[in-house]
Amino acid sequence: MSALRFFGISAIGLLITMAAVDQFSLLYREISRSCSFYIEALAIVGAWYTVRKCVSLAFDTYSALRLHVIPKLSGEIDLVKKYGKWAVVTGSTDGIGKAYAEELAKHGVNIILVSRNKEKLEAVSRSISETYQVETDFIVADFSKGRELYPAIKEALKDKEIGILVNNVGIFYAYTDYFTNLSEETLWDLIHVNIASATMMTHIVLPGMVKKKKGAIVNLSSAVCCQPTPMLTVYGASKSYLDYFSRALHYEYASKGIFVQSLMPFVTTTKMVAFSSTVSKRSIFFPTAEEYASHAVSTLGLSIRTTGYWKHAIQLTLGWLAISIANSSRELTVPSEMEYRTQLPHPE
Ligand SMILES: NC(=O)c1ccc[n+]([C@@H]2O[C@H](COP(=O)([O-])OP(=O)(O)OC[C@H]3O[C@@H](n4cnc5c(N)ncnc54)[C@H](OP(=O)(O)O)[C@@H]3O)[C@@H](O)[C@H]2O)c1
């Protein structure tokens, strides 16, 4: 009954309106004129959004080419002239540190290796000097020992013209675990090796660089620095420390001729990831340390914050996309504990 009344009233309303505007075509024109105003306004908003997206895409593409492609195609940069004769690389008897040291030596830079194992240091040092015809030296230092180490390192470096410092040394978890399950010893090791070493090595080397008004400091952070990492809490937090440390230091010292880079690799097939049979094998996604270092060195002086490798840059972009999609469907902004447990072996 009420529906009939509604239709009746609507019909009468329409008839009155039609009478008021004389004919239906006039009414239609009036309505479409006001609609077209809204459509045009929406079209302007859409066009503005599209232009902004296109400009930012063009900038991103240009930055990616400038960082990852152009340096590889153009001639090599003279790192000795740009930064100085010597480079110090920590944790340089294996993995990324060793590969980075070799890559710098390829550019004619003399290398000082700092690591914990004397035999390995001798072997790597000899191999680099014979292969690349550069001078090499090494310092035996176990960074997990903490504060007591640094006076001796400072003394050993005092007469060297250090142009590049690579704070590479880092340790990972043996397996994922709750923070309170980690021993005090493990916690101190993580703090001393991952955080204190980069801080103290920079404190030793930076004054000399500032005096010469040139130098570069590369801190090996990690792609995990961008997100909280439950079950790897201290490792992830230590990498965030290095990222923030690098960025702030760059702003403090750029005007004094110092370039500081936060290098944030994704998985690279070194012994650090040997726990996993999937990620420890070289593949299209996971480069070897040598492949990674060759790209990372070519970004030196170009980007203060980079994954260092175009494949890792793609993975980071896809990672962010996945995270933003996941965030739109749930409140938690970090992967669940379960997801982390599947990535690393756990004793339970
Ligand atoms: N591999 C990855 O997927 C990945 C991803 C992101 C970030 N990173 C970061 O990249 C850096 C290098 O990683 P990596 O995979 O090359 O590691 P790695 O293969 O385990 O090599 C680590 C190097 O550090 C040395 N080292 C370890 N503990 C030390 C200590 N207490 N004192 C002195 N030297 C010590 C090792 O010496 P020995 O030869 O004696 O063992 C080795 O030369 C780390 O900071 C890591 O967090 C790695």
TrEMBL record:
Its main location: mitochondrion. It is found in: Mitochondrion. GO terms for molecular function: oxidoreductase activity. InterPro entries: 17-beta-HSD3-like, NAD(P)-bd_dom_sf, Sc_DH/Rdtase_CS, SDR_fam. GO terms for cellular component: mitochondrion. The keyword S-adenosyl-L-methionine does not apply. The keyword Transcription regulation does not apply. CDD domains: 17beta-HSD1_like_SDR_c. It comes from the Eukaryota. Transmembrane segments: none annotated. Keywords: Mitochondrion, NADP, Oxidoreductase. Belongs to the short-chain dehydrogenases/reductases (SDR) family. 17-beta-HSD 3 subfamily. This is Hydroxysteroid dehydrogenase like 1. It comes from Corvus moneduloides. The lineage of its organism: Eukaryota, Metazoa, Chordata, Craniata, Vertebrata.
